[in-house]
Structures are given as C-alpha cells and as structure tokens.
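Need the bound structure for 4'-deoxy-4'-aminopyridoxal-5'-phosphate, inputs here:
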Amino acid sequence: MHKIASRLTVPQLCTTGETLSRVGVAQLRRQSGASCQQSAFRYGSTDRPEMPPCDFKPVEYKDISKQRMMEIRKQFCHPMTMKVTYYKKPVFIHQGHMQWLWDVDGRRYLDMFAGVATVSVGHCHPKVTAAAEEQLRRLWHTTNIYVYPTLHEYCEKLASRFPDPLKVVYLTNSGSESNDLAILMARLHTGNSDIITLRGSYHGGSPQTMGLTSNTAYKYPITNGFGCTNTMCPDVFRGPWGGSRCRDSPVQAARDCGCAQGQCMANDQYIGQLKETFATSVSSQIAGFFAEPIQGVGGAVQYPKNYLKEAYKLVRERGGLCIADEVQTGFGRTGSHFWGFQGHDVIPDMVTMAKGIANGFPMGAVVTTPEIAASFTKGFHFNTFGGNPMACAIGSSVLDTIEEDGTQQISHDVGTHLLTGLAKLRDKYEIVGDVRGKGLQIGVEMVKEKASKEPLPPADMSEIFEDTKDMGVLIGKGGLYGQTFRIKPPMCITREDTDFFLDVFDRSLQNYVARR
Ligand code: PMP
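Answer from helper R.:
Posting the output first, comments after.
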C-alpha cells in the first residue's frame, strides 16, 4: 500500500574503510571493480551523507564467517542473545577505534551508542589500551583480601572526584551489582525496607534490581523486588504536566508554559504524586529513593529542574537515603558536570556507577559516606573480581584520559551542537515528538503525530533504525514503548561527526516519510 521510495541501504565504504559517498552512481560503479572489491551495495541514490574521513586502518578480518557466527548464536548461545540482537541485518563488529567501528567486511560505522553508553573515552583508546597492556603483563588478578597498588590508587582517585562526604568506594563488576549493594546498604543503614524509584527507570536486571527497574519489558512473571515501589516519573514531555522551561537542557519540550518566573507548576504536581506515594504505598519510614539523574534506558527522560532537590528532602524526612544511579550519566557524559547529580544541585547519600567507568572493561562501584559504609561491615561481604587489578588500572587510566582529552567539555560542546541540530529535525518532522538531554546523553522520542503523542510503533522505529545503520551510523533504542532513539556516543566525538549523523538521521526520516 505504501509507496516505497528508492531505499538507501548501505554505507558507501570500501574495504580500506574510506568513504565513497557523494560520488555519482556511475562513478561508484566504475570504482567498485577497483578499490571496493567487496562492495555488494545497492545504490539507490546519488547523493548521500558523507562520512567524515578516518585515517585509522583496521586489520583485515580473517575469522569465522558471518553465517557461522549466526549458526552458533542460534544453537549454542542462550536464546536471549538472539532476542536482544539489534537489526534485521545485524552488524558483525570486528574492530573499534575511538568513535569508529568496523564490521567484518571492512565497513565503517560511526558509533553513536558506545556499546550502550559504555565506551566513554573511545574504542581502544591508545592511552587506556597501553595501561591495560602494562597491567596485563604485571598482574591479572588478585583480590581485595590482599593489598596491591592499583586498588588503592584507583579508590583514592575516584573518591577525589566526589564532594564530601562521599568518600568511601566499594568496587564491583556491573551496574546491577552496584545497585544491589546500594539496596543492601540502604536497608542495613536505615533499618527500613521500602525503596522508591521512578517509573520508566532502569536500575538492573538482577532479581533484586528487577524490583527497582520500573519498566515491564524487563520484568518476569515471578515475585520480585520485595519492598520496591515506584512513583510517577516527572516526564515533562509525555507526563500529564510539563512546560517549555522545565528541564535543564538546551532543548525544551514543545509545551506551553504559564508559570511565573521561578515557579514550576509541573514540578509541584509531580512532587505531589511522590507525596501521594508516601501517603499510600510505603511505611512512614523508608530505606531509600533511587533515581538516574537523566533516565537512560527510559529514553533520556529529564525531570523538572528542582524535582530531585525536593524529592531528596522528602525522602530524608522519612529516614531514607538518596541514591543516584550514575551508571549512564557519570564520568562527564552530561557535559555540565562530572556527575549527573551535580546538575540537580543535590548531594546523594550513595552513588552507583558502571559502564563508562572503565571504557567497556567490566567494572562498577558504589561510593558513599563513611557512616553508611560502616553499616555494611555488620556482616561479611566478599567479591572475587571487585577491585581486580586490571579493572583498577583501566579505570584509573580512564579518569586520567577524561581529564587529559577534555571529554567532559566535548560532551558539553558537541552535545549542545547535536541537540540543537536534532531540535531542527523535531521542528521539521511530524514524527519527531521530543528532543531532550544534556551533553552526550540524548533522546529523540518518536510519535505517530505530535498532537496525540502516540508512540511510533516498533516496526516503524525499526525502519528508521535500520536505515540509519545502513547509512553508517549506530544508535540505540529505548523508552517505555521502545519509541525513543538513544544517542550516547563515545565522548571523543567531533562536531563534524555529529553533522554527519544529523544528515544521516534526517535522510532516514525523509526516507520513512517518503515510503508512506
Ligand atoms: N543502571 C542504569 C542506569 C543502567 O542503564 C544499567 C544498564 N543499562 C544498569 C543500572 C545495570 O547495569 P549492568 O547492565 O552493568 O548490570
């Protein structure tokens, strides 16, 4: 029924990784016999966004075939691996360098998702790789029952990035594990059980954190998350209240705002909802409140500027601890600050982190106050890999690299440029409902039409997603209804790269509309 416009299907890349875009069809065909021997591309258009140049040359891929990988994936990997696989035509990744990825056929991709907001300073960043190699030759593993330099150097360095009284570090291996420990510490410290989170949040998939995570897609039909309650997410785009000045972002929701200067009716309403949760769903004394400074999996949802500040006050009045889940927002990703909570002008009682902490090496941490940490020593807890020398050496090098490469400033500057560009696409296309975020933690919420805000259906999202990938850019998806594109590249990205992404995204939206 829908008219199918000539589709843009693949990035115009030769095996050396050089782009051949903006070259006429005839010229491409002439070249295809020579420098692009492996190109089996369909050329539907003569003018496509040009990928910025990159002089890094990946090694030639000589390992098992794509077909064999898929056979093994289907036969020997847990079916969940198949279920979560991105793209109808998956990307077979072979090598990475900074913001770039190469597939097994030598095609280059701009990585705007960073392995789910995890590659913080760049794929195989030379400095971090050198630190890993050096440690690899010295000591792979020992545990914290012994004393070794990497653990201590790292804990001191990480603690120095926090305001008082957040000065005690416990190292883990993942975000879920960090949040599990934070739940445990909050309960031990307060003697209370109830924990509150925001709807749409993602805090992990372990049996405990599944209770914190307030997104049905990640829940199983079993009893989980005893003592976990959620409250309305103060989502100023999709929620019942919101205006054009609520959030801390270069781009505001396209909603009217009748509030006087310094007032935020939406914030008052959402805080009212939290008060109602206190009045109806938990005991009078609670253990804690978890919130991501900007929701990650939830689709870069931002709250009204004062929400966390007021929520923290109310939580503390009820004996609870305030926990900031910085698994996605930490390490400078939001641009304005090193930690997302600083953008809300609050100091949490505990901060959990993972992902970007070690640029993709498995690592996590919980940072808290000496008093809260002391409650944990009532019992005995041991973690084989938490504080592993490899992780600590890499984490330490990541902290240095963030400083030396100025990645927080890049997040701010390039992120603001990107957000501004995306806002233009929101104004251009009826299906782009909202653009939001800060720094390089960005969400683009897609709708059937702006008036109804009905989420763009998954099949439609997939079309745009696949097309964007075929033009050489990897992005992510999230949101409660899978309706939000998530953009969180390695923080070494340039303005030129984001302009390329904007061109590609614009083109895939145009293609989508043209097919209707
Ligand atoms: N918290 C947040 C905010 C996350 O985004 C994630 C992972 N997406 C987690 C916790 C869980 O981290 P992990 O997958 O390392 O267990």
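Comments: The chain has three domains: 70-117+407-515, 125-174+354-405, 192-347. Residues 407-428 form the longest helix (22 residues).
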